[in-house]
Amino acid sequence: MTLLRTQNLSAFYGDFQALFGIDVTVEQGETVAIIGANGAGKTTLLRSIAGALTTAPQSVLFDDAPIGDKTPHDIVRLGIAMVPEGRRLFQSLSVEENLMLGAHSGRAGPWSLKRVYELFPRLHELRHLPSTSLSGGQQQMAAVGRALMSNPRLLLCDELSLGLAPVIIRDIYQCLGAIIGEGTTVVLVEQDINRALDASTRFYCLQEGRLALTAPTKNFDRAALTAAYFGM
Amino acid sequence: MQWLNILIQGSLLGGIYALFAIGLSLSFGIMRLVNIAHGDFIVLSGYVALVVVQGTGLDPFSSLLIVVPVMFIVGYVLQRGLLNQTLSGGLLPPLLVTFGISIIIQNGLLQGFGAYDHRLQEGPIETASLHLPGSIDIGVFPLLVFAVAILSIASLQFLFYRTGLGRAFRAVSDDAYTAELMGIDNRKLYALALGIAMVFTAIAGVLFGIRTIFDPAAGPIRLILAFEAVIIGGLGSLWGTLVGGIVLGIAQSVGAALDPTWQILAGHLAFLAILIVRPNGLFPRTRD
Q1: First vs last Cα of chain B: how many Å apart?
Q2: Which domains does chain B have, with CATH numbers?
Q3: Which of A2, A67, B51, B117 could serve as a FRET partner for B171 with CA atoms 20 to 30 Å apart?
Q4: Looking at the complex, does the CB of residue A227 fall below 8 Å from at least one CB of chain B?
Q5: Can you tell me the mean pLDDT for B145-167?
Q6: What is the per-residue pLDDT across A170-225, written as a single tens digit (0 to 9) for each?
Q7: Which residues of A touch B173 (CB under 8 A)?
Q8: Of A43, A46, A53, A73, which to mutate for an interface test with B (greatest number of B Cβ within 10 Å)?
Q9: Do B271 and B232 touch, CB atoms closer than 8 A?
Q10: pLDDT for residue B286
Q11: Residue A94 near chain B (CB below 8 Å)
């Protein structure tokens, strides 16, 4: 079953066009990676899906319903949550308050404070600390936990590995496995291509706001990916 | 003993300044809205109370039961219908729009009520006082105002740090974009914030109207006092705002004791002095 579909999605920042007619589909239960160089439009694509950028209504369909013109808070209620690039925890809130804020939309589902602490036991120990006192990896766990608290059907992850040590990245991607195991559909945006391809079943490669290549992550043509990635 | 008396009277005076400032502190703290019409909303609340008192025969304290909800609705609708549209374009549009609102309120009141002074009459409590040893007299009404200021700030502190709504307010204040991504409807939250700010503005306006005379042009000086209290205390800190009001009140009392014509000037000088020594105020919280 198709959970998310973009059709001929174009997105603009003022007069600047960042995406040109993107068609992407994400099936229920799938993990899809979006890869591409800096400025290819990966984050813009996530922002368009999450409603942070308004697009034509029909250009983003969730559960076959048009959501392109909906606000981010309406979209969270429908079941799409985003882990934003750079984590963006709320500085004046404690770790636990950050997690509780993620549940603001009040969606029912498997995730609760208890379940998030089971997934990230370290956060339970740190729960009363200000979010600013956490290390980068702990902040990333809190940001993922906060998104899960809204019990999303579709989780959008923007650059989970950004600025983190490889061993921490490995830990976080292991936890992502548990999240996917819960039945959550995941869209990953990554600059770390190998990491993204390992974790996903299918990928899209963007290049300068256009779709350059899409393939399953097993047995694809590396040369074609290089060409799509660098535009050569 | 005379100086102790001045200190006490000044602190009590600070209570009304803190009340003036709470609404301004809230709307700036949560949505970075500098409400130039804030002083005029204080005065407007006084006039709403006047109408209620004259129309229903209630005393000014009881009129709060009507004035507070009315001003909450005014704040909510104003933010939802008008000010939300100004917030995306930087600091200037809300300044200009609230400046316009200030002019509209002043002239509307002038048109409706004339340029005369008005007062709200609360009866004997206005002049009652407690006699303390050392020939110190504490006015019951200033003491009441001071208690209301502390109670107001304590209740807001509770709202901010112990409730889900307060958590959402703090999150939006930190990072409005991410708060939206977490499912918060910023526009609705902002409307609630100005509504709540107006609740305290209404209380300030009614108490101020009992304490002293007011006229349609009385707003801007209240705005200046509120600004000074907020900035002395540090942006975004509610207890700081109370301290700011007290600092202002004490400075004015000291000034008045030296020479009655210096009262207002002394407050402004204290403000300038603190601005030079601690440009971010005494207890700054808000980051930009």
Answers
A1: 44
A2: 2-277 (1.10.3470)
A3: A67
A4: no
A5: 96
A6: 999 999 988 998 889 999 999 888 889 999 999 999 999 999 999 898 888 888 88
A7: 92
A8: A73
A9: yes
A10: 56
A11: no
The residue among B70, B65, B78 whose CA lies nearest residue B31 is B78
DSSP H or E run through B113: helix B92-113
| Identity of the amino acid at B150 | I
The interface residues of chain A toward chain B in range 33-92, judged by CB-CB distance below 8 A, are 50, 52, 71-73, 76-77, 81-82, 84, 88, 90-92
**pLDDT at residue A219, as a whole number:** 81
C-alpha to C-alpha distance for B38 and B61, rounded to whole angstroms: 21
Please determine, for residue A232, whether its predicted confidence score (pLDDT) is greater than 80. Answer: no
**Tokens standing for B195?**
């509504």
B183 CA to chain A: closest CA distance, Å?
A: 4
Distance of alpha carbon B63 from alpha carbon B234, whole angstroms: 33
Q: What is the DSSP letter of A17?
A: E
Mean pLDDT of chain A: 93
CATH topology of domain A2-230: Rossmann fold (3.40.50)
Summarize the confidence of residues B68-90 as an average pLDDT: 94
DSSP A85: T
Buried b (16+ CB within 10 A) or exposed e, B111-133: eeeeeeebebebeeeeeeeeeee
Q: Rounded CA gap, B141 and B124, in Å?
A: 10
Q: Contact, A101 vs A76, CB < 8 A?
A: no
pLDDT tens per residue across span B33-55? 999 999 999 999 999 999 999 99
Q: What is the pTM of this model?
A: 0.92
Domain boundaries, chain A: 2-230
Confidence at B134, pLDDT banded by 50, 70, 90:
confident
Rounded mean pLDDT, B84-94:
88
Confidence (pLDDT) at B171? 96
Structure tokens at A59: 């250009």
Q: How many helices (H) and strands (E) does chain A have?
A: 9, 10
Q: Which residues of B touch A (CB under 8 A)?
A: 164, 167-168, 170-171, 173-175, 177-186, 285, 287
Query: Do residues A217 and A203 touch, judged by C-beta distance below 8 A?
Result: yes
Residues of B whose CB is below 8 A from A84: 178, 181
Which residue from B minimizes the CA distance to A85? B178
Residue B46's nearest CA partner among B209, B269, B235, B230 is B209
Lowest mean pLDDT among A3-12, A25-34, A79-88, A175-184: A175-184
Q: How many CA atoms lie within 13 A of A45 on its CB side?
A: 38
Tell me which amino acid residue B79 is: Q
* Paired tokens of B74: 């005014």
Looking up tokens 């009277």, which residue turns up? Answer: B9
User: What does the radius of gyration of chain B's CA atoms come to, in whole angstroms?
Assistant: 19
Rg (CA), chain A: 17
**What is the ipTM score, two decimals?**
0.91
